[in-house]
Structures
1.
Amino acid sequence: SPIDMRSTKLRSYPKEVLEDGRSIRVGPATWSYDWALVNASLGWSARGSWEVRLLQPFAQTTRMTFLDRDFTLQAFHFTSPSENRIEGEGFDMEVQHVLQSADQKVLVVSVMLRVGLVPDNPYIAQFWSSFPRYSPGVQAVDKVITNPFYGAIPEDRSFYVFKGSLTHPPCTNEVTWVVFEE
């Protein structure tokens, strides 16, 4: 990781909203959450990117099942420019949702963004101005935000899947990446 994805590897499945109203299934993936609003901590990752960490109990109740393995959303961070590419094209920004299973396997769900879309994106607009300015030792800011699985995942859930690694230390291998086409 990172890689350049080609449309020959794109997977598209019909989207199915499940009866509970808080779960969406697309092919081998099911996104689910218990609360539409979550408590989160807005701050900076060790590598200097914007990071949102879900606070408990929300980190355990925002889930994704992928290929019959359950993962919980721990955090998501923004990288600029994007680390991955689609059809040779890089993007202004990439949001990487980091999930972990009970047996410590890692899944990253990635959404590409164009900077012009950030101010018009109601999900990001709710917290973007609340990020603290970057400086060594800056304290994170706690905030109630819309659950990422409710507001941040694209309506079109066509995606690419690949095995790779984390793009930052400890560069964990055997990471499953799900990268949305749009």
2.
Amino acid sequence: MDSPSLPPLGTPARLAVGIVSAGRVGVALGVALERVGHVVGAATARSEASRDRLARHLPGARIASPAEVARSSELIVLAVPDSALSDVIRELVDSGAVHSGHIVVHTAGAFGADVLRPIHSLGAVVAAIHPAMTFAGTPDDAEHFDGCGWGVTAPDEIGQAVGESLVLETGGRPVRIEEAQRPLYHAALAHGSNHLVTLIADALLALEAVIGLPSVEGAPGQDAHGAGSELYSPRGHSDRPLESQEESLDPDALASRLLGPLVRVSLENALASGGAFLTGPVMRG
């Protein structure tokens, strides 16, 4: 395959795209790139889940080895787990499948562009482009790129410009992250995302336990009928329709209804003003 020539900066070229591998991020990014005119022609898909995902969302892409993906592509997306990235890069370099004229990007959060140095030394344009987003493997995953922030790191301005252009094409917002700051960048995102999920899960479990407790006649907070609240009153009288009463008996749904609005507003306040909106015992000491 002849070396593809790079387009002038700022000109969105239609590229033949190859994806290594067809995980949640890789397929979602492939779908987003196809929506703006690029063509995903090949991808690696070792697991049955990856093969099914590829067939559903990128049916025009054939399954191939990493080297075959590279040889048939102009833009190579390395969307493998962080722990596998170095081995995949070494495999591509040893195969002779990457060369000057290729664009090679990876989506790993913890690594910058240094890990791509063996490919960059061959004359390829390289960049690390990491979406600050979580993906569930659902059909609407590609929609999450709209307005999504991306950490972009490259060894030179050409790679930076190409990486940022790809991000902009997906509807994302590129943010330049220096190589030395990449580990802290990734740790901050993991801390905010993973700990938030754990915190909410714990709070929901606690609320479900409270809501699921049987009503006690005359307990504090109950009225004369033994009703604990308007939301949950399995023994009390309610004028609400039967469907609404049945829904109110589900502790899971009620816990989400109680916690959801509070968490959403708290998150928006925290993003806007940091810890200035802390309330309750945390502020009182």
3.
Amino acid sequence: MQALKYKINVIDFSDFTNLESIGKGKIHRAAWNDCKTTVALKSFQEKNDEFFKELKAFIDFYKVSCHPNIIGFYGVTK
């Protein structure tokens, strides 16, 4: 998986339960069993090298921000 190339955490999809569609597009609320927390899962069509490069830059930018209004990023799943 290209996510590993960019050192993006990969989470097994089977770790999520109770998927519920929220909002428009491909966004779902799910229970993350390992962390006992509710998360949002967003689906992306683009999965090429350029996509992961931009995603990694986005993650690195927001990783330094410790603000209550910025949603945390935990990783990707397949």
4.
Amino acid sequence: MSFYRSGGLTGGIYIKGIGVSSGIAIGRVFVDWKEQVEIEKEYVDDVEVELDRLNAAIEVAGQEIKDLYDDVSSRLGRDEVEMFATHGMMIEDSEFIGQIKGRIITENVNAEWAVRSVADKFIQVFEDMDDDYLKAKADDVKDVATRMCRLLLHIEGSDLSNLREKSIVVAKAFTASEIVQMNRDKVLGVVSQEGTLTSHAVIMARSWGVPAVIDVSNVLDVVETGDMIVVDGSEGVVILNPDEDTLSIYGEKQREFIDFSKKLSQMAGKSTESEDGYPIKLYANADTGRDVQGALKNGVSGIGLFRTERL
């Protein structure tokens, strides 16, 4: 775990991670101890029973994904919504589902083991790719496979849509499905013990605009629900149980960030030029179509770099 002290601040435990969505959040922790999907390989006598279980899980998972797609279609950009369209296609993919059924039949194994073992093979293929955006496709497989296994094992998934208090959510990892279903009025920030810069959950958090830090090693070993925490998504730092001085300093940083963001929004659409009147064109970098829309709305001259890997 990377503990350190920064800028003379000594009140609290500082842990370095990777900031993926700028801003500062200050609040109480909610630890998302979602039940982990533990799967053991079992040999079965009746493969037809396992195939029936699998088909039932596929049907329910498909409906859940469709409901989620319909829900997010009205409030997210096209690129983010397409992530869930991909999930819908995967649950119907003949190659993916065919390999799962084939493993049940040929190896006489339980359905959840077949799902996990086939999914792991697909995940490895994507993770071995050199392109970071293709690597992120592994997230789609993980998300869909986890959903299917939870249904097969009758395990409740994470539901962060009904948080009672405004909180900073800390978890081992988040899926894109979990991020998008969070109650935006209640979630002040997000901290993940694991994660990669190109994961779909990160893309969703950044699109949402909530301060987020990932890859915070072993944070779950030292944090509990109710602890006070500061999340600095700009610097990639979380501070556990800060003292009053630290809270005051980061409260001021938070106000400065909000004020700066407001000033930037007020400048949107205004002409850009040097002090001697020479016009300067501003171009934006974009990952998604939503980024493009936001950039153009804010008056840029064009797009300087657009990532085409996700098209």
